[in-house]
């Protein structure tokens, strides 16, 4: 994908337009939750599978609204990645997110909007302070720029052997959905 993380002028212009359309878009989003309108009205994160708490009982899924997500306790990771210079990622701990939905499973599958997915053992989230990053240097991650959510490990505190090999496949970006297995 093309990185655009340091120049977000177009994204900001789009946001201003979206704000003025917010009431219309919110209505559209409530009727059609998976449309581009829903994306503009508010970013959501859906967790499903082996969980014990639901916002949608029939679907057995828990959908975090942008407001609820942003109210979670936040952690910061200051690191460079293969794709970004040294900077600050902020988001809740993945283990905290999993606890909020009563997750029971041993394997956690992260789905990207680009159809990428990766399954990570739940033990990683007790071993490492992994966050689901929502911002980079205080700017929300945009869908065309690794957002809305990016699985981020505290790379700066990890040894070379821990971050070599298949490790980087765990850094799933464009995440919108998580399945507990
Ligand atoms: N959403 C999403 N996240 C992703 C990927 C992807 O294709 N889509 N590729 C993964 C893999 S397999 C690796 S090795 C790293 C690096 O991907 P790259 O080699 O395409 O830069 O990002 C990971 N995160
Ligand atoms: Mo990879």
Task: Give a description of the structure.
The structure is a single chain. With 181 residues, the chain is α+β, with helices and mostly antiparallel strands. It folds into two domains: 1-32; 36-180, Sulfite Oxidase, Chain A, domain 2, CATH 3.90.420.10. The chain is built from six helices and eleven strands. It has a five-stranded mixed β-sheet with strand order 2-1-11-5-6. A four-stranded antiparallel β-sheet has the order 3-4-8-9, with no helix packed on it. A two-stranded antiparallel ribbon has the order 7-10. Strand 8 and strand 9 form a beta hairpin. The longest helix is centred in the first third of the chain and has 12 residues, at 9-20. The protein is globular. It binds the ligand Nc1nc2c(c(=O)[nH]1)N[C@H]1C(S)=C(S)[C@@H](COP(=O)(O)O)O[C@H]1N2 and molybdenum atom (MO).
Rg measurement, Å: 16 Å
Overall average pLDDT: 85
- According to DSSP, the number of beta strands is 11
Helix residue percentage: 10-25%
Across the major sheet, the strand order is 2-1-11-5-6
Q: What is the tally of helical segments?
A: 6
Can you tell me the number of structural domains?
2
CA-CA gap between termini:
29 Å
- Give the names of the bound compounds: the ligand Nc1nc2c(c(=O)[nH]1)N[C@H]1C(S)=C(S)[C@@H](COP(=O)(O)O)O[C@H]1N2, molybdenum atom
| Estimated structural class | alpha+beta
Query: Which shape, going by the Cα principal axes?
Result: globular
Oligomer: single chain
Instruction: Give the topology string: H per helix, E per strand.
Output: HHHEEHEEHEEHEEEEE
Question: What is the CATH superfamily label of the largest domain?
Answer: Oxidoreductase, molybdopterin-binding domain
Low-confidence stretches: 6-19, 21-40
Largest sheet: 5 strands, mixed
Report the top-level CATH class of the largest domain.
Answer: Alpha Beta
């Amino acid at each position: 994908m093309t990185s655009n993380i340091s120049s977000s002028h177009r994204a900001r212009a789009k946001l201003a337009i979206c704000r003025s359309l917010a009431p219309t878009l919110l209505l559209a989003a409530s009727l059609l939750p998976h449309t581009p309108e829903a994306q503009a009205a508010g970013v959501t994160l859906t967790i499903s599978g082996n969980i014990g708490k639901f916002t949608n009982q029939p679907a057995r899924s828990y959908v975090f609204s942008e407001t609820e997500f942003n109210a979670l306790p936040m952690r910061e990771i200051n690191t460079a990645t293969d794709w970004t210079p040294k900077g600050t990622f902020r988001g809740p701990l993945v283990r905290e997110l999993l606890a909020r939905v009563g997750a029971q499973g041993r394997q956690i599958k992260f789905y990207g909007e680009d159809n990428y997915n990766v399954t990570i053992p739940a033990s990683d989230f007790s071993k490492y302070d992994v966050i689901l990053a929502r911002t980079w240097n205080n700017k929300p991650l945009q869908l065309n720029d690794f957002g809305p959510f990016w699985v981020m490990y505290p790379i700066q505190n990890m040894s070379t052997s821990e971050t070599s090999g298949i490790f980087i496949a765990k850094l799933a970006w464009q995440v919108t959905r998580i399945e507990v297995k």
